[in-house]
Design a protein that fits this description.
By secondary structure, this protein is mainly alpha-helical. It is built from six helices and two strands; from the N terminus they run ααααααββ.
Length: 217
């Protein structure tokens, strides 16, 4: 019996050691599996960061144009943040005048319709205060202002897109020391005397006075 008990103890110890070894192997396998995934995520994150930095490193004119479809994004992409208040102020001003004139246009249009269709029964205060001719003139006046305001708003929208595109293009335009811009007056002294350079009396030939601008690069 003591011999059997000893064999049983040795068997239990061997099984426990085998189980411990299997657990260690499974833990190591799990760590080995986790490490490649973590490394892949880190590499992918680094690639995304590199692409993101490259995206904002040098402005691309095409990208700037597409982003400018949403006003202000093109200027942000070009890192011209000081232009944002100008862009939004232009839209705020044109939008205010456009919708304000639209409101007046609708009021005078309804007043004119009321005065023409209902005549003396019209209770519209504008129709009672103005004649038909005055209502037509006021209606057309505010309609022209409304249309002009919307046209200016559309032009401002296109202008901010062009600004973003041109800014991105000018990023690659290098100005060195040889690039010079000179502005000089162009005055013909013979224009102030009795004869010009050809000896002809004044008025027989044309003389030009002004400013010359020259760019060398």
């Amino acid at each position: 019996m003591p011999a059997l008990a000893g064999v049983f103890v040795v068997f239990v110890m061997m099984n426990s050691s085998l189980l411990a070894q299997n657990e260690i192997k499974s833990d190591n396998t799990a760590v080995e599996k986790k490490q490649p995934r973590t490394a892949m995520l880190m590499k992918q994150s680094e690639r995304i960061n590199q692409k993101f930095d490259k995206f904002f490193e040098k402005p691309n004119p095409k990208v700037a144009t597409w982003l400018a479809l949403l006003p202000g994004l093109g200027q942000i992409y070009n890192k011209k943040y000081w232009k944002l208040p100008i862009v939004y102020a232009g839209f705020a001003a044109t939008g205010y005048f456009a919708f304000s004139n639209r409101s007046y246009y609708i009021d005078y249009r309804e007043a004119y319709i009321c005065k023409v269709e209902q005549e003396d029964e019209c209770e519209n205060p504008l129709a009672q205060a103005y004649s038909e001719n005055d209502l037509v003139s006021l209606r057309d006046y505010y309609r022209r202002n409304m249309e002009l305001s919307f046209i200016i708003m559309a032009a401002w929208y296109i202008l901010q897109m062009l600004d973003a595109t041109v800014d991105a293009h000018l990023y690659y335009w290098q100005i060195d020391e040889e690039t010079t811009l000179s502005v000089q007056p162009a005055i013909d002294p013979t224009a102030f005397v009795g004869k010009n350079r050809t000896g002809q009396p004044p008025g027989s030939t044309k003389t030009f006075n002004g400013v010359t601008v020259s760019l060398r690069f």
